[in-house]
Amino acid sequence: MELKLPLIAAIDVGSNYIQMIIAELNPEGQVKILEDVIQPTSIGRDTFTMGRIDRKTIQETCEILKGFSQLLKDYRVKDYHAVGTSGIREAENREYVLELIRLKTKIEVEIINSAQERFFMYRALRSRLPGPLLAEQTTLIVNLASGGVETSIYEKGALIFTEYLKIGSLRLRETLADLEVKSINFPAVMEEFIDSKTSLLKRFLQDIKFTNFIMIGNEVRTVANLCGEDQRIEVEDFTKLYEKLLIMTDDQITRTYGLVKNQADTFLPTVITLHCFLKLTHARQIYVPDISLKNGLIHDLADGLIESPQSKDSLNDMISSVWYIANRFGADRRHAEQVEKLALSLFDQTGKIHGLGHQERLYLQVAAILHAVGYFISFTDHQEHAYRIIRHRNIMGLSARDLILIANIVRYNTQESPSHQDENYEGLMDRDKIVVSKLAALLKLAEALDVSHKNKVEKVEVHRKGEQLIFTMYSWQDPFLEEWTFQNCSSLFEEVTGMQVIVKRKGLSL
């Protein structure tokens, strides 16, 4: 008899639409959608024009989510993930909005940043794309949402570049509203505005030869449907649509293409943005997969129950984006890779001692890769510079809290130990202080094992003997400096684990 897994659901409280899907998952990890609902909202319009979400919009949002909550009860869904994007994220009254939603609908909405949004979108993308499209070719991906545009480049399966710009379709409309009533050629003004915001990006992209061009987002799907296509848009067909729209009024566009208000508000900005990015490529087709943020959320929930090849690909995307940052800040890649390898080995071998899980392992991995980025700014207080660099990065799949923890782990990758005198540490929750201290202790040990930057230590084996942990280094060369540094850096590890550290070394025979 086939094992039935619990039903799962994903809710996207977006800037222009509120959406939910309910799905069932089979033991092979395949997702079957049972419900797919969507309702228009004015959240983004309020935020992008007034900076706050209006009381009436909050009431309407709560009513929509009450209906979603009832569907969750009807299907007996217990595992769900509800997120809010730029429309709520940038609202001055977001805390009040989230609390009213929680009280009136019993739905807990998590605010995600653009990097987390990107992670979920690309998780959905991985589930729909033919494997070779990302694995073998150079691909430009543009995720056009209501609040912003995320541009990414994949090369031979690795994410090598990503950038987020606040020029989403609805935001453009609201930002340029005053110019729209004054200009006789508003589409040209809008295109010029987009070009001005993407000028630096264009300099980076212009010398890259893209094999594929992928556009994702709800608004882009509307364009694809009007071009008579499902998963692809022929550039010739798109160009005809673009040229036709340039001489039409909003009313004419709405009537001609049968658009509802929310679609009409974002349709022209979507087409013009798409045209601006299309000019950067020599693509003959635009690939438009039928995915959205909610698809990524549902697949991520599924990954928590059954690991799939796509989930590993998504993790690789995240780590690729971290390496992009490390390279951008001139990190010694060979050293960083060695520290990463040794840190993860120590983490895995001491699991029963530190009691941390998969998420904390990821924090350590990211910290190991980025531990030396502060040297790009200064050799003096480089750990402080590294803290600020990481704290204000936009790393795929990581929340603001995640970045704070990773930044603190790197911050204490020196002779200095975490202290309540440090406001960065004191401001953490007690549980997070423990996580930072344990991972900083492991990172100290890992970097000590490559203090010479010569990759002397091939591996480390850890064995427990009573209240002692014996670390045996295996090396082709004399690791005297590494052994001495390791012993001097072990005090924090001893303090947070209650174990005595003993260091031994063995040579590797040919």
TrEMBL record:
Occurrences of domain Ppx/GppA phosphatase C-terminal (ranges): 321-483
Coiled coil feature spans: none
Entries under InterPro entries matching the protein: ATPase_NBD, GppA/Ppx_hydrolase, Ppx_GppA_C, Ppx_GppA_N
Ppx/GppA phosphatase N-terminal domain: residues covered: 29-302
One term of GO molecular function: pyrophosphatase activity
Signal sequence interval, chain numbering: none
Superkingdom per UniProt: Bacteria
Pfam families associated with the record: Ppx-GppA, Ppx-GppA_III
Family that this chain belongs to: Belongs to the GppA/Ppx family.
Name by which UniProt lists this protein: Ppx/GppA phosphatase
Organism: Desulfitobacterium hafniense (strain DSM 10664 / DCB-2)
